[in-house]
Amino acid sequence: MSSQASPFEDFAGKWRPRIEAELEGILPLAECAPRSLHGAMRYAMFPGGKRLRPVLALMAAQVTGGDLSAALRPAAGLELLHTYSLIHDDLPCMDDDELRRGRATCHIAFDEATALLAGDALLTLAFEAVASGGGQAVSALARAAGSLGMVGGQVADLEAEGDGQDPDLARLESIHDRKTGALITASLEIGAIAGGSSDERGDLVEFGRLLGRAFQITDDCLDETGSAEELGKRPGADLAKDKLTYPALMGLESSREEAERLSRAAADLAPLICRGLEGSGLDLGLRLLQDVASYAITRTR
Ligand code: GRG
Hints:
The protein contains 15 helices and 2 strands. The chain is mainly alpha-helical.
């Protein structure tokens, strides 16, 4: 059902079924050998979570006046890569979690070796899917996911766990920007590229940086205030592991204020990002970007 209340939710609701169908078509069937591997890949992918990264990619194609159908396969590739990161993040050698998206994590439902390899296979498949958006899209993904991006952020996050160093905002921002922000920014970039935009994308990249930070601060806050039912994962895990988080550094109230400040700064960039649009396209683009900036800090899961 469409409502004027949330342009972002309307947009996401319209495109999620096409994202699901695209993922379904990309993944090998569970009956295809090796069945344990393909079963584990599908188990981690379906049912999914919010599908935020593919929705952001499609939104970026929309607000840069691009072709959303051309961006659909690369958008699905982003979700393959994101799901790999969740499988690996949950492993005993990383965050050692047993609950994800409301059910047993992949290594609990299967075994550790199968979960590790299912993550590897999703990571590899992600690049094949994003390659349909061209070489620039592949480069953007490689930069965001690699040692200078998400994997590097994960290493820094693990190293910061209870290491006895004084909490430090610059260190925390650097972890969040790489671990979470890099893939969120790449999702926007890849959607714009695959949709056919040849514009300079500085404003969109800055929007992604601000959105990614606001999204992760909210994640940190939800870990303290959310329930397992809402989140689909065990709350309180950050606290238990003595992780470096915003609430640990500055308390819940100041964390929320910082997320609001970042969300407003992101929303302020909407007119710059949409500058090539006019009429109803401009109106929709502005509302989408402003609404997703607000969604990043008001979400409950
Ligand atoms: C290479 C061995 C190896 C491991 C890498 C890269 C990595 C492990 C982990 C990535 C870091 C990570 C999981 C960051 C958390 C980002 C985050 C906020 C995840 C939750 O995203 P949502 O809320 O989840 O979009 P859903 O379930 O909705 O998709």
